Structure formats: C-alpha cells, structure tokens
UniProtKB/TrEMBL annotation:
Pfam families linked: adh_short
Organism, scientific name: Phenylobacterium zucineum (strain HLK1)
Record-given protein name: 3-hydroxyacyl-CoA dehydrogenase
Top-level taxon in the UniProt lineage: Bacteria
InterPro entries: NAD(P)-bd_dom_sf (IPR036291), Sc_DH/Rdtase_CS (IPR020904), SDR_fam (IPR002347)
Annotated keywords: Oxidoreductase
Lineage of producing organism: Bacteria, Pseudomonadati, Pseudomonadota, Alphaproteobacteria, Caulobacterales
GO function terms (MF aspect): oxidoreductase activity
Signal peptide: none
Family per record: Belongs to the short-chain dehydrogenases/reductases (SDR) family.
C-alpha cells in the first residue's frame, strides 16, 4: 500500500507514546489520520499538529467506538489503515500472602476483566468495525483494501510476576492475529501484530533515570529502551509491504523477560 493523501488512517491510543509516533509517521507521508484516545487535551494537540482529527474514544464502549469511526469517516472518508495502540496494564499476583499480616489475597476479577476488556476486546472491537468499513472500498492496484496493525507485548510470551491479566490480554491479541488475517484475506485486508519490548513511553515517564538505565541495560543489543519512532517504523513497514500478513513480530532488542 502506498502512503499518500488519498489514504485515511485511524490510530487508537494515538495521543501519546507508540500511538503518537505512529500518527506522526503516517501524517509525514501525507496520510489523513484520526486519533482515537481518552486524553482530549493531548489528542487535540497532536491532531492540530499533524492536520488530523481527534475523536474522544473509550475502546471498551460500543457507543464511543461507533461515534469515533463516524466522526473520523465524516472528516477523512473510510480508513484503509487501522493501528491499535490503545491499552493499559496492572501488576497483581494471582494469589499472595501479606508478609506483615499474613492476610491472603487474590487477583480481583474486576481488575482482571478490565485489562481484558481494554487490551483484547477493545482491540477486536476496533478491528471488526474498521474491517467492515474497509469491505466497502475498492481494492488498490496491489489488491489491498486495507491494513491493520495491532499492539501486543513481549509479555504475551514471557510475562512477569503480576502480569497474569496483561499477559493474557496481549497473548489473546497474538492468538487472534492469524485467524483474523485468514478471515479477511479474500477481501484484501492484511492483519499483523507488533510485540514491543521495553519502550520509552509515558508509562515510564515518571520512572527515575537510573531505573530507565537499568531496564535498558537488560536489553542484549542495543542496551537501551526502545524509541516509539522505531515502533512506528515497523508499523509502516507492515502497512506498506504487501506480503506482510498474519505475522506477530517481536520488537525488543532480543530481550527475554525475567520472572520479575
């Protein structure tokens, strides 16, 4: 798929981090970009910066997602590109004993479900609705009607202590990539997923520099945190390379996460 001003894109979680880098990379190619995010102030600022449109959206809400797609398509037309970056995480042990009091606790199911709803169900909701819209488009000369890029995590394969919910949600994104790519293959819509390692995103913004340096030192090569622009570069490759389909690709400097 060639990236130019005739192409529209939607990026969920596009107001910051990996999503913002992807928004800016697509816009630099002339693509008309809609940002789906909960952060209205940051989302509007990024949209103004790149000449895009901001759509306030909670991906766990059917109503929000429908309204966001309607607003994006009214502004730019039917999107050919969807990049799913909206997501969050928590760190809670499945069951644990308080060292001081001896009290035994377990992972609250509502907290587990919240992560699944945002990271997994929210991703699928946006995929299904975007793909349905892409089906209305004529194929491009290369046969593509659209391209979808999802964001999982290396935690899908080597989750750490406390990451049961997060790893389950991201493992689900990995697991559904190939069947969705197969579902949509006859209609020329490609689907791929990136599994980022430790990236320098707003999730780490409050961490001391010494902590960031220690995390970066765990990476075999290069010994640093990933840059959001490197994620965006791979996302654009997945979009523009017509033979890239049904793949789950780690982007992690060869790190394999330790238990903690």
């Amino acid at each position: 798929m060639e990236l130019n001003s005739s192409v529209a894109a939607v990026v969920t979680g596009g107001a910051s981090g990996l999503g913002e880098a992807t928004v800016r990379a697509l816009a630099a190619k002339g693509v008309k970009v809609a940002i789906f995010d909960m952060n209205e102030q940051k989302g509007e600022a990024v949209a103004k910066d790149v000449g895009g449109v901001f759509c306030k959206c909670n991906v766990t809400s059917e109503e929000d997602v429908d309204a966001a797609f309607a607003k994006a398509r009214a502004a730019h037309g039917q999107e050919r590109i969807l990049v799913n970056c909206a997501g969050t995480g928590n760190a809670i042990k499945t069951a644990s004993r308080d060292k001081q009091t001896g009290e035994i606790k377990h992972f609250p199911l509502d907290a587990f479900n919240m992560i699944i709803q945002i990271n997994l169900v929210g991703t699928f909701r946006c995929i299904a609705k975007s793909a349905a819209g892409m089906l209305t488009l004529d194929p491009l000369p290369d046969g593509d009607r659209g391209a979808i890029v999802n964001t999982a995590s290396v935690a899908a394969e080597d989750g750490q202590i406390g990451q049961a919910a997060y790893s389950a949600s991201k493992g689900g994104v990995v697991g559904m990539t190939l069947p969705i790519a197969r579902d949509l293959s006859n209609d020329g819509i490609r689907v791929n997923t990136i599994l980022p390692g430790i990236f320098n995103t707003p999730l780490l913004a409050a961490a001391p520099e010494a902590v960031k340096a220690a995390l970066g030192a765990q990476v075999p090569h290069p010994k640093r945190l990933g840059n959001p622009e490197e994620y965006a570069q791979l996302a654009l490759t997945m979009i523009t390379n017509g033979y890239f389909n049904g793949e789950d690709v780690r982007l992690d400097g060869a790190i394999r996460m330790a238990p903690r």
